[in-house]
Amino acid sequence: MDIAVIGTGYVGLVAGACFADTGNEVVCVDVNEAKIAALVKGEIPIYEPGLADIVQRNVKDGRLSFTTSLKHGVQKAEIIFIAVGTPQDEDGSADLTHVLAVARGIGEHMNGYKVIVDKSTVPVGTAEKVRKEIASKTTHSFDVVSNPEFLKEGAAIDDFLKPDRVVVGVSSEKAGKIMMDLYAPFVRTNNPIIVMDVPSAEMTKYAANTMLATRISFMNEIANLCEKVGADIDAVRIGIGTDSRIGMSFLFPGIGYGGSCFPKDVQALIRTGKDVGISLKISAAVEDVNAQQKSLMFQKIVKFYGSAESLKGKKIAVWGLAFKPKTDDVRDAPALVVIADLLKAGAEVSAFDPEAMKTFAAKLGNNPALTYAESALHALQDSDALVICTEWGEFRRPNFNKMKVAMRAPVVFDGRNILESKKMAEEGFYYECMGRPGVTSTRNVAAKINAA
Ligand code: NAD
Q: Measured in angstroms, how far is the CA atom of residue 401 from the centroid of ligand 1?
């Protein structure tokens, strides 16, 4: 099949590469000239495990190409995916500027029947808006399909090639058949292609993300309660997760969810509710809890040092800047909040992330009090404490002796519960985590005094 994917971000580039990898001819289109120029040279503008291989292989085999010409993409394709960003607007709603601009452009360049697929996360009613934009520019026939994407950054290729399910919202049998045919190679293990009406498909994406965000905020709330009453969230997590009605996924507490999806999608769902006179109280609470959770680590640090003023001149190491491991995406990452609070209090921050330092620096701008280290260990040099913001695999088994030599005081705030309290006690660290007993024994009071 001839496919065009408009927007070559985390979703569009992965989708384009994976469609090419199943034998389709794919043109990826983007307005960002620098991005397209890099892709044409074989450079991958984002970090996503496995993506470079699959892009380079399909370019070499002539099935995948890149252009800034929407006209070229539209005219060559029979299926056109819209995969541009839908950032949060000021009122919380999804900003559809890019989606509708692309729709108009598609309309202008139509040269025959096409299926236009909304892959971007868009609120109910968007497919109809896209249809109207296209129809205002062309007399050619077309169908608009909703096909929300459920991939996770960091595991995007696997998620796309082997999805749990494919959701397709259609209003025509013809478009439904084309979509079933396109996705057949991805569901050979009999995972379902779920065909439904368009509004339900659009809603499914928001309901899925808000459900997942709800689990995280709920567990964070329970973790905070565990801390106060002397329970251990890890035991509770296993205790409830083994109930088949609950399941083990998405039960880990932490310093809040981030990324380009959950925060904006929960807000957009709340906005959709407001627009039709329904107050989505659970969704609103999910967002409130998450916002509080992001500043909780800073509050723990302040409590440890006695006051925010005591942080002035302290050197704090931060491990992890990306909103999750295995990505360079820092959109709405909890580390943005933690580091902003530390800098505001007058601390110096020495940060390390295996992939996200460039994107983080671009987001936060220049600040002489924020430096980026070449390794996790270098970040710790002369630091008064370490804060862990992202659960990268390489942070899970650090060399504790080297850490203690590098640090001024063996003090660790673990926002992702990746280290073990018992081990940290044996190693002589002062250690705080989320919803579990930390290490505050008298043996470590010296560390506290040294650090204060
Ligand atoms: P992104 O910001 O990484 O990429 C969007 C791309 O679209 C950019 O390269 C931008 O230059 C391009 N673009 C903008 N306007 C354009 C136009 N008029 N013509 C051509 N290109 C244009 O975004 P993303 O993370 O890939 O997300 C895309 C959509 O998919 C969003 O709606 C998002 O909510 C949804 N989604 C994202 C994820 C994820 O994990 N990132 C997962 C599922 C769904």
A: 43
Determine the Cα–Cα distance for residues 158 and 144; give it in Å rounded to an integer.
27
Q: Is the CB of 157 under 6 A from ligand 1?
A: no
Distance in Å, CA 282 to ligand 1 centroid: 27
The residues annotated with a catalytic role in the active site are 261
Ranges of H-type helices in 230-329: 233-241, 262-275, 281-305
Nearest-atom number in ligand 1 for the CA of 121 is: 32
Q: How far is the CA of 158 from the centre of ligand 1 (A)?
A: 19
Helix (H) or strand (E) holding 400: helix 400-406
**Quick one: pLDDT at residue 449?**
58
Q: Which amino acid is at 180?
A: M
The reported pLDDT for the residue numbered 366 is: 85
For residues 448 and 78, the model is more confident at 78
Ligand 1 neighbourhood includes 100 CB (under 6 angstroms):
no
Decide whether any atom of ligand 1 lies within 6 Å of the 9 Cβ.
yes
Query: What are the DSSP calls for 83-148, one per residue?
Result: ----PBPTTSSB--HHHHHHHHHHHHH--S-EEEEE-S---TTHHHHHHHHHHTT--S-EEEEE--
Closest ligand 1 atom, residue 122 Cα: 32
Structure tokens at 388: 């862990």
Angle at which helices 198-229 and 262-275 cross, to 10°: 120
The token pair at 141 is 């026939």
* Cβ(19)–Cβ(161) below 8 Å: no
- Half-sphere exposure (Cβ direction) of 382: Cα atoms closer than 13 Å: 7
6 alpha carbon – ligand 1 mean position (Å): 9
Give the pLDDT of residue 315. 97
Report the nearest atom of ligand 1 relative to the CA of 13: 26
Domains of the chain: residue spans and CATH: 2-196 (3.40.50.720), 209-452 (3.40.50.720)
Sign, Cα dihedral of 432, 436, 439, 441: positive
Which residues are CB-contacts of 265 (< 8 A; sequence separation ≥ 6)? Answer: 121, 205, 206, 209, 210, 213
Model-level pTM? 0.95
Q: What is the mean pLDDT of residues 414-426?
A: 95
